[in-house]
Amino acid sequence: MRKILVLEDEASIRGFVVINLQRAGYEVLEAETGNQALEILLENPDVSVALLDIMLPDMDGFEVCRRIRSNNSKIGIIMLTAKTQEVDKVTGLMTGADDYMTKPFSPTELVARIDALCRRVGAEEKKTADELINGPFHLNVKNRTLDKNGDRIRLTQVEFSIMKLFMENHDRALSREEILNQVWGKDYFSDLKIVDVNIRRLRMKIEEDPTNPEFITTVWGFGYKWGK
Ligand code: CA
């Protein structure tokens, strides 16, 4: 059974989320504070997805996200935001979250997004060993690692999936819709901004000059292209 961590200090919202996830067949772990969430994750390294509230009593959800990502690139992270300002903060800070949802959200949508994140990770685990080499980049599909000139680049699961998609489609312009469908899944309800957020973060990790990218180039009004 897939394990989901729910970090939310408001008991009523947490209860609502927990019950819906349990109905959907997930095992749910609950935390009220950032520190509690980090402890639970240390004891349960097999958690597939973490849902993180932003306004918490001990630290904000962005800090929790940053700390989780500093030693766990595999877990899926969805930020639960209360208002548009927080959405802007999510996109602005790019803390390593895979997605965000604005409260109030429907349980159906929440479960669909978690399912999609879990499926993406699960589906890629089943693939056989494979390597993609492109310029200074060496992508190992089995180990889910990316090296540039022999140096390991730490990627989240989503960033890895985007890199894989790019390297499989050298020199081909990919629309933002296509990237969203391929990486997050066809039935994913998120908006296209999440593609741009992840691309921006990826550029900061792989480009010499992220403001003047040479590998991931923008195709204006359409999407992105991989290749020099
Ligand atoms: Ca809160």
Structure keywords:
single chain, 228 residues, alpha/beta, Rossmann fold, Arc Repressor Mutant, subunit A, four-stranded antiparallel β-sheet, binds calcium ion
Overview of the structural elements:
- There is one protein chain.
- The protein is of the alpha/beta class.
- The chain has two domains: 3-122, Response regulator (Rossmann fold, 3-Layer(aba) Sandwich); 131-226, Winged helix-like DNA-binding domain superfamily/Winged helix DNA-binding domain (Arc Repressor Mutant, subunit A, Orthogonal Bundle).
- The chain is built from eight helices and twelve strands.
- The chain has helices at 11-23, 34-43, 61-71, 84-93, 107-126, 157-168, 176-184, 193-206; strands at residues 3-7, 27-31, 47-53, 76-81, 99-102, 131-134, 137-140, 145-148, 151-153, 173-175, 216-219, 223-226.
- The strands form three sheets. The protein has a five-stranded parallel beta sheet with strand order 2-1-3-4-5, sandwiched between helices. The protein has a four-stranded antiparallel beta sheet with strand order 6-7-8-9, with helices on one face.
- Helix 1 links the parallel strand 1 (3-7) and strand 2.
- Helix 6 (157-168) packs across helix 7 (176-184).
- Mean pLDDT is 88; it is low at 123-129.
- Calcium ion (CA) binds next to loops.
